[in-house]
Design a protein that fits this description.
globular, Spore Coat Polysaccharide Biosynthesis Protein SpsA, Chain A, alpha/beta, 303 residues, 12 helices, single chain, 9-stranded mixed sheet
């Protein structure tokens, strides 16, 4: 059994196609738990109508709204009790074999405790079709590989187990994004498996919450130069990491605790000392120490 956790907000233009893609899944033992954050465009009416047609679609109407993306996804987790959970965005389209492929990988991994499986996605829009076969350009496995990404791996590409859900349900004081919190927990207290295969269309449009994906490492490098006015570290992700550290510090392995302490201390150092500390700590960006050090030279550190 798999719970699909779908957070909606003013997605009337897209949500029906996403629900259709769930109903086409070759793995049929799923339940879609939908919660809306206060839509005013007809999204709720669409979900109610679909829930009447398919009992696997469950619309939670608890009066809670205005949560924002991260807390909205975390809020819905309380209604999930299946052995496996998948987050879903309202505007994507899943390939028919997405659940079956990811569940097979999760069962094969036989996680000892908390675990997550990530897959990839194709970048797609109705006007151009597929314009990149890879949204996730790098697969981080440790804190050193993820802290300078200013994000997690795409939450809608994840499947995670019940022990991971329990850890995620412990409330943090601040969230940058739900997928950022998931990767922090997975990299420190869980196991990570990657399925290097696109299993959904990641729709690109003007309303994307996280902006448009670059689609390639070369494009990522180009954007790093074009957006050189932006900082190396985004304050929301720094604060989200700090909230994670403050809550889970006593349960972290010594090495992870030290890595996080260094990361959180870096803003107080002068540029040259910070540069050498990052180099000696073997932090990376997209798996590259050179790329991260170049970014440090091009941009201010934090705002």
């Amino acid at each position: 059994m798999v719970d699909i956790v779908l957070a909606t907000y003013n997605g009337a233009k897209y949500v029906e196609e996403q629900l259709d893609s769930f109903c086409r899944q070759t793995y049929t033992d799923w339940r879609c738990i939908v919660h809306d954050d206060g839509s005013t465009d007809g999204t709720q009416e669409i979900v109610r109508r679909r829930a009447k047609k398919d009992r696997r679609i469950v619309f939670i109407e608890d009066g809670v709204k205005g949560l924002g993306v991260a807390r909205h996804f975390m809020h819905i987790l309380q209604y999930s009790d299946a052995p496996w959970v998948m987050w879903a965005d309202q505007d994507d389209i899943w390939f028919d074999h997405k659940i079956r492929t990811m569940l097979s990988a999760g069962e094969k991994a036989a996680f000892a405790g908390a675990g997550v499986v990530y897959a990839n996605a194709e970048l797609w829009c109705p006007e151009k079709g597929v314009f990149s076969h890879r949204n996730t350009l790098f697969y981080p496995r440790s804190l050193r590989d993820m802290l300078f990404l200013n994000s997690g791996v795409q939450g809608a590409s994840a499947l995670f187990n019940a022990p991971m859900r329990q850890l995620l349900m412990e409330p943090l004081d601040y969230y940058a994004m739900h997928d950022h919190a998931l990767l922090l927990v997975a990299a420190t207290m869980g196991e990570i498996v990657y399925v290097d295969e696109p299993l959904m269309y990641y729709r690109q449009h003007a309303d994307n919450v996280t902006g448009h994906a670059p689609g390639s490492k070369m494009k990522k490098v180009q954007l790093m130069w074009q957006n050189r006015h932006e900082p190396v570290i985004f304050t929301p992700h720094y604060e989200g990491t700090k909230a994670f550290y403050d809550h889970f510090c006593s349960r972290l392995k010594d090495d992870d605790r030290q890595v996080l302490q260094l990361y959180l201390d870096l803003p107080r150092y002068a540029w040259l000392q910070r540069f050498h500390l990052i180099r000696r700590a073997h932090f990376t960006l997209l798996g590259s120490r050179w790329l991260l050090l170049t970014k440090l030279c091009l941009r201010r550190y934090k705002r």
